[in-house]
Backbone:
């Protein structure tokens, strides 16, 4: 193997004078970070409602802006305690819900006046009236979490207290969820954490009396890495302060109270079907026994139940039936054991999520994407502003993957299946450069307009034909130049700051390790092996000062699926671990800041932030974007959600944090249900009894 010239290994004092994150000041200082999320820019959720009698038109309850989901109908008595709403007697409905707008996650209370039927009115009053009014009140946002972005889930209003989920507090342990339940006294904004330290609580539900709150929780078991059913248990505690916490059900999620002694929840059964169960409990000073019984039958997936405190004969559930590609909202009569479809006839080709019932049980709410699947319903965002916790740093989600900024920060290269695209950093001037399958992008530091990428199948074996190419995107007719040879999974190119060399990963030895080759002529001009071992080193990034190459590796557990973040000098010395996300964790896609002092990356460091079945399809609903110092200290979380965030990159230029729409109308709502939600029970019929019998537990 021909050795590459030593000039590739000089330590470079490089480039653009730049400021660190803490030093960036007013004026031209600052930076931007862009990252990808699987399918997220296709979501345009609003909250809708249908009469439980099944004889109404669908009514949209939210305002058609941003992403609105996980609604809750508060009681009029709770709303009356809030001083921020007008003193009017003609409210048609009140709605508490989670919204992603203004670059962050917030909880709003909407009061709808005049435009909607009052909950419980007869069918003749169901037409939308003129003279409508909407009053929106922000009841939980960044001010609750000390200015940090947080993710909220299943909010409830109990008197003048808001009960909700947030992820703003570090759990203190890698690969452990930050998800906890909080109670905020809305008049004073005083907030109390109800989840004990060391536990992770999801999907809180407050009992009809308001005394008890039930959660799906890891408790002492912790997250095992499952991305389908989390293996949570049901715990109950006092709503006022989180005390008297007791586990009442093993193996269950998404609790919902029928009354203070009856609780519904879902779990995946041994026969392969998701089903709803009922738990009968005794409450007093504590909870000391529970009897559980399967409610919905095998042969249909039923999950995210919502029970009624007023009408105990039925529950609302989301279902996924064999032969259907979509999940729908149905009512299930727990006495007659019959389903009543609701959304199937209204929107047959759309997914409907997480039902909730009005206080009088006459309406069922849910969220779905605006417009049926495949409809062009307005413009989709090519860049979505995400509220950044870093000073003088803007944060963007891109409608694509593997974004990278040009050295001057003016342009972004990215991949959008199957091709390579380039646009201005403000989202304008989108052009397709390369139409074949590509992944990973990086700009040459010295040759203006030259972009490196890899072309061929992704997530493939070492021997798969994948090669590194370069393309000058400023040419009149850009054409690829192949740089690597042999096609043995050569990918993730990253150029040196002097523009002379490229580091990349290759499987040519039978294992994926790092190599360095000439940036202009490629492998024929020389090749140097940087790492060597029976493991996978990949996703490499060369620091702008030339001193380090960061990369992800499974070298401490080859083939085990876990990846840690390492860095090494370009001459092969100084190997050190930068970050590990637990023993089985994943830390990937490192990218240096423009001053080489920080690294942005994606990791499961914060575990899972919500029950995955309550969200649309995500292969890895645990990935978030983090920033650390280059020595591995001072980790900071940038995204808080249940999406698969990944492939981040850094720009030396600050971009104004505004949303940018695609220049043309494009299809929305083109996403799938959870990929692991199968609609066949295979050969597991013999296990029906095990999941279906009545179980009694003592605690």
Residues:
């Amino acid at each position: 193997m021909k050795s590459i010239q030593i000039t590739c290994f000089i330590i470079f004092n490089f480039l653009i004078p730049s400021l660190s994150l803490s030093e960036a000041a007013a004026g031209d200082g600052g930076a931007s970070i862009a990252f990808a999320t699987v399918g997220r820019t296709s979501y345009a959720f609003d909250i809708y409602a249908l009469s439980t009698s099944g004889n109404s038109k669908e009514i949209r309850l939210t305002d058609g802006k941003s992403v609105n989901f996980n609604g809750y109908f508060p009681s009029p008595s709770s709303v009356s305690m809030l001083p921020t709403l007008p003193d009017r007697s003609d409210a048609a409905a009140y709605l508490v819900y989670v919204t992603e707008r203004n670059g962050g996650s917030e909880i709003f209370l909407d009061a709808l006046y005049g435009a909607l039927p009052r909950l419980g009115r007869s069918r003749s009053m169901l037409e939308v009236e003129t003279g409508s009014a909407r009053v929106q009140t922000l009841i939980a946002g960044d001010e609750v979490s000390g200015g940090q972005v947080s993710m909220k889930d299943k909010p409830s209003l109990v008197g003048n207290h808001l009960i909700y989920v947030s992820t703003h507090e570090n759990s203190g342990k890698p690969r452990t969820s930050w998800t906890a339940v909080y109670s905020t006294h809305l008049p004073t904004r005083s907030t109390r954490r109800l989840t004990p330290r060391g536990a992770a609580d999801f999907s809180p539900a407050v009992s009809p009396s308001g005394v008890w709150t039930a959660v799906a929780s890891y408790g002492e078991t912790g997250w095992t890495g499952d991305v389908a059913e989390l293996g949570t248990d049901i715990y109950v505690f006092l709503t006022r302060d989180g005390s008297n916490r007791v586990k009442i059900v093993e193996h269950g999620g998404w609790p919902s109270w029928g009354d203070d002694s009856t609780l519904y929840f879902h779990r995946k059964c041994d026969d392969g079907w998701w089903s709803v169960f009922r738990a009968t409990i005794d409450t007093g000073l504590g909870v000391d026994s529970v009897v559980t019984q399967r409610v919905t039958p095998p042969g249909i997936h039923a999950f995210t139940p919502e029970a009624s405190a007023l009408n105990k004969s039925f529950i609302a559930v989301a279902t996924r039936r064999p032969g259907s590609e979509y999940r729908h909202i149905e009512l299930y009569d727990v006495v007659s054991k019959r389903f009543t479809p609701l959304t199937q006839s209204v929107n047959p080709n759309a997914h409907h999520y997480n039902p909730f019932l009005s206080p009088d049980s006459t309406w069922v709410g849910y969220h779905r994407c605006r417009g049926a699947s495949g409809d062009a319903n307005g413009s989709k965002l090519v860049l979505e502003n995400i509220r950044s916790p870093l000073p003088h740093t803007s944060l963007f989600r891109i409608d694509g993957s593997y974004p990278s900024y040009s050295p001057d920060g003016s342009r972004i290269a990215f991949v959008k299946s199957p091709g390579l695209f380039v646009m201005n950093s403000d989202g304008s001037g989108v052009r397709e450069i390369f139409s074949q399958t590509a992944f990973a992008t990086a700009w040459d530091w010295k040759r203006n307009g030259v972009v490196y990428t890899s072309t061929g199948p992704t997530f493939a074996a070492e021997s798969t034909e994948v090669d590194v190419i370069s393309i000058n995107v400023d040419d009149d007719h850009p054409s690829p130049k192949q740089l690597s040879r042999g096609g043995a999974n050569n990918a993730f190119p990253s150029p040196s700051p002097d523009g002379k060399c490229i580091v990349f990963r290759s499987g040519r030895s039978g294992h994926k390790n790092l190599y360095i080759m000439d940036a202009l002529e490629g492998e024929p001009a020389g090749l140097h092996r940087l790492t060597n071992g029976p493991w996978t080193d990949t996703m490499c990034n060369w620091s702008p000062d030339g001193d380090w190459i960061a990369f992800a590796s499974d070298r401490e557990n080859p083939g085990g699926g876990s990846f840690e973040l390492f860095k090494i000098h370009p001459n092969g010395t100084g190997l050190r671990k930068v970050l590990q996300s637990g023993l089985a964790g994943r830390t990937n896609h490192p990218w240096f800041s423009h001053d080489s002092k920080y690294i942005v990356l994606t990791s499961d460091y914060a575990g899972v932030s919500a029950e995955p079945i309550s969200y649309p399809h995500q292969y890895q609903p645990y990935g978030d974007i983090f920033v650390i110092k280059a020595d591995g200290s001072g980790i900071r979380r940038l995204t808080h959600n249940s999406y698969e965030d990944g492939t981040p990159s850094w720009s030396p230029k600050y971009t104004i944090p505004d949303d940018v729409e695609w220049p043309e109308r494009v299809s929305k709502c083109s996403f799938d249900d959870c990929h692991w939600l199968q609609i066949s029970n295979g050969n597991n019929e013999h296990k029906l009894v095990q999941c279906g019998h009545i179980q009694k537990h003592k605690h």
Q: What stands out?
A: The chain has a mean pLDDT of 87. DSSP finds two helices and 50 strands in the chain. The helical segments are 76-79, 688-692.
